[in-house]
Each structure stands twice: as structure tokens, then as C-alpha cells.
Design brief:
- By secondary structure, the chain is mainly alpha-helical.
- It contains 15 helices and 14 strands.
- A hairpin with a 5-residue loop joins strand 7 and strand 8.
- Helix 3 packs across helix 5, helix 9 packs antiparallel against helix 10 and helix 11 packs antiparallel against helix 12.
- The protein is globular.
- The two termini are about 45 Å apart.
Amino acid sequence: MKSKVKFIKKGSTILTAKPFAYVLKSEFRNDRCNNCLQSGKLLKCSACQCVYYCDQHCQRESWGVHKFECSNLKRISPRVIPDAARLMARIIVKLNKAGGDEKGYYTETNFRMFKDLMSHYSDLKQDAKRMEHFTSLCGVLFEFLRGTTLPNSAELMGIYGRICVNSFNILDQEMNSIGTGIYLGPSIMDHSCKPNAVAVFEGTTIIVRALEDMPRLDWSQVRISYIDLLNSTEERQAELLAGYYFRCNCERCISDEPMITAAACPSSSCNAPCSASEKHCVKCGENFSEEFEQTFKEVTAFTVHHLQSMKTMAYLDVSKICLKRQDGVLHSLNLQHVRTLDAAFEAAVNLGASWEDAEQYGLNLIPGYLLYYGNLHPLTGLLYLKLGKIQLYLGKSLEAVDTLKTAESVLNITHGEQHSLVKDHLRPLLYQAICESSK
């Protein structure tokens, strides 16, 4: 995608790109198309019986890549090749076919090739966990790509390192990771915990959009977030160091974030964030009991334990227990409280058991999202979208109109008016809410 040297307005698309190589996550292999990653009615590949496609068009489009793995997938079936090994295999096959010459442009004249991506070779050599993973993947590759010319061990590690440090999670419309891809041009972007751009996806196409006005398109100043921002500075730094071998020194990381560990003021009429180690509220002067600090520590530890157990699946009953114990102890913007509300909202939406509860969790979650994600973030927009949908279902059409208009103002910036999330999901809901509110 060619970029123009001019003033960049907030909400502008500054780069789009197709993947150099990508894979659908194996957990979705029976539910999504192996080519476009969309869900729906699918047809199984008659040769390998391992992957699915929307139709013959997607199958033909994918054949250039799939023909080299089709017989191998059939041979090792019913075993499922790890996603990282399959992505490495696709890259190896592509490089063997002169794919190393492919250029990913990020300006009219500037581009990146696969060899330009950083591999962090020396860091990998010192990373025992990743070296163990790499060794395991090599064993899988030697069996999977039997008869294919493989690079030497140093080149294989270079490929592995480039995947570790440069790959993007391909996200669906709800920002769930459904695949992994290497994008050459977009790999130019650095990280910030206070980003000025965002990457969203339309199928396998990555779309980078500006979250702030920029005097010009200077890629050395464009920042996206590599990680989830609903984390403490310590957690973010640890994740970046382990995954990308650097520490972030953005404005957010070098400033204090007192809300993360804030306690609630014992006075019900005061909403000031407090430190549990203090003796009284600095705003209203309310005294803390002698046991308050210990209670705060116990509730925090209890919450952290249960949130860890819900990392892959949110449970409404567990979330409710945590919220009950947090009441009057954790501040409403305390990170663990916001995470618990997030889990409760997700569980309530998935269960569909109590839409009234789901609405309340969503409303309570908004301030936390605004603090940790910001007012212009895809997840903030999605929260408003889901909440508006719930309000519409509950017959609260006037509230739904306001909530969905807020969602529109966010998603028009993060995704754009032509994105399928906006066109096919948000707009019909907003139209329905407006019609019902006018009756």
C-alpha cells in the first residue's frame, strides 16, 4: 500500500497488506476456512481430509500453498501439526520457491523483505524456553516436510526467530486470535503501551489506522501495541521482555499508575482511590480499620488466583464470588476489579442467562476500559457495541441508540466505515434501535 507524505488525520488508513505467510489456528480447523479464515458452511479438502474451505474459489486460491502440505497433512493424520511448525513449513516452502524476493512496501519506495525482519538470533540462543520449543518444532518439521530441502539449523533458527518477534495475531471481528501471520511492510512498526495507531483485520488483510492526528507519516514515530493493555506496567514489561526482548519506555510505562492497586475508601460517599497501606483516606479523612490492609491483600490474592484459573474460560459464578469479596475493598478502577468485571461480562454474554446482569457488568466496565485501553481502542468500541446490542434486546431502545452511536464514533476511527464490523453488524443494530426508539 503506497503512503503519501501529508497530514494524517485521525481515523485514516495508513497501511494495508496481505500476509507473506499465515496459518489458521488448529483449534479452528473444523470451523473456519483455511484460506479466508471466515466461518460458515464449509467443504472439506477431499485429498487430505484435514482442512476446510468456504467453496471452490477459496480452495483454488489456497492451492498454491496447500498443495505442498496436503499429502503431508494426510500422512501424519490424525495427529495435528503445531501451528508454529505449520507456519515455519509454509515459509520454508515459499523461500524455496524464491519467496525471499517478495517485497512488502510501507511507503512508495521503502519496503521490507523476509530477510530484513529481525530474528534476535543471539537472544534466542540464550532463551532456554524458546530453544526447547525450537528443538521440538525441528523434530516435527523433519517428519512433516519429508523429501523437502530444509535450511540448515542456523537458517531454521533465523526463520523461527522472525516468527517469534514479527508475527501478528490475526483477529476476528471480536478481536479474538484465529490465526498467525507474517506481514512484511507492517513489521516496521514499533510498540508503545500508549499507541498512536492500531492494527485490525478484514479476513487475512491487515489494516493499520491512525488513532491520532499526525503531521506526516513518519514510520519511526508510528506505534501500535504488541500486547494486551489490560495489564500492570510490571506485567507488560515482563511480557515484552520475554516475547520481544526489549523493555518499553513509553509515557505510560515511565509514569505512576496508582489506580492499578487502588483500594476503595471505606466511606460509601467517597469514591477516592486509596492506598491500603495508609491509615486514612487522603481525600475525606475516613480512617481505615486495623485489618483493612490485610483484607485488601487477601481479596487481591483471591482474585488473582481465580482470574488465573479463568484465563481460557470465564465462569460467571466464580466472577460473582470475586466481585462480592471485592465490594468495599477494591476501588472500581483497580486492575483486578476491572479484570473481574471483564470476565463476568464475557461469561454473562456467552451464557445469555441474565441480560440484565450482563448490561450492568458492561456499564460498570466502561470506566475501566477507558482508563486502561483508552477511548479509541477496538475493544472499547466492541464493548459499546455489545452493550448496545444487549440494551436493544432488553427493549431499552433509547439507551441502545446512545450506546451504539458511541460505538460508531469509536469503530469508525479504529476500523473505518467500510469495515464489515461496521457495515454488517453495527449499522443494522443502530438502524433497528433508532426505528424502535421512534415508535
